[in-house]
Description:
about 30% strand, disordered N terminus, 6 helices, 5-stranded mixed beta barrel, Molybdopterin biosynthesis moea protein, domain 2, Molybdenum Cofactor Biosythetic Enzyme, Chain A, Molybdopterin biosynthesis moeA protein, domain 3, alpha/beta, 4 domains
Amino acid sequence: MEAAAADPVAPPPPAGWEEARSRAYAVGRAAALPVVTRPLVDLDGHTLAEPLATRTPLPAFPTASVDGWAVRGTGPWRIVGRVLAGGVPAPLTEDGTTVEIATGAMVPEGATTVLRVEESSRTPEGLVAGTPRPMPEWRLPGEEAAAGEELLPVGTPVDPAVIGLAASCGHDTLRVRRQPRAALLVFGDELLTAGPPGAGQVRDALGPAVPAWLRRYGCAVRPSDVVGPVADTLSAHVAALSAALTHADLVCTTGGTMHGPVDHLHPALEALGAEYVVNTVAVRPGFPMLLARVVGADGRIRFVAGLPGNPQSAILALVSLVAPLLAGLAGRPVPVLPQAVLAEPISGRGAFTHLALVRLDRVAGTVHPLRHVGSAMLRGLAGADGFAVIRPGVSGEPGDRVSVVPLPLLPGERGS
């Protein structure tokens, strides 16, 4: 007598969107990347692993803020010298004397004020005359920061402004978290990598775009880290994932997150011994997204983020799972979502969170929903600032204050 067939195992229920974000951040934080020392020129995109503190007062000495005359006492003043930036002047020891001074130069000891050059004149005897302004025209030592003062905390993303500040504090190197290295595997025999779509094939829009998004989240992605289209076979998926996981901290994949006849991501992850952190999320669009954790033979933890094949859904998976994961890996604080007011209604999605593409009006503090927002469309995304979060069981009405998941854009790129 034949044994009865086993009942199929029901898939796990999708994680709530906020819970999925929290899980992604927590596993990233637990696997935070090592701390390294880097020179300032190599720091852009890294994250501070130690507080940024000053090595001296800022400024370190009294510094002229204008070109003019450093004077002592009342005028007119006899010229006794000249001081340029980089020099150390002799003290002014007598009332009625002055030295010519350049912006940024050290103010001599004994000076009582600085007279602007454009507000000065010469007497027939060659003396300097003029009326100084009431406030001294120089920066005092420690005016910006005291010696040893902590200016930025651990977890601060390093950008050009931070690099410049570190240099002004006297640092040549900083201790930072190593940048996450990412790879991208593009799945799908139907994808074209060049030319227009047609005859049953579509152009791959994610292979060129996802690496750029990842770089804006602070990842290092080289052209050789993008592979695909990977053949729609289980063996090809396992081989591609295994190869990428040898060098990447995070491997993103596009497509194959469901359980169709050519969706091999789940069995490939099983073959690699991966552990799901998140397996589907109750969010629309983008429902079949996933995040898995893989422990290598060397004991190092890597991650696989399964992005849906539909382009907008894939980007939504990036902002939902990959962004908080990378924040954790880099030792940054959990991303806090800004708030804005809905200018127009946005429908809910029942028991699912709805992430709706919006454009931000920065002056009014409002967000406006966009058109062309189907999960396979990219036209709306190209004009968006982020996604408005419409929570489960409700619809968004004009005047409602909602959270906004920002796209990782450069300052000033979008929004009015």
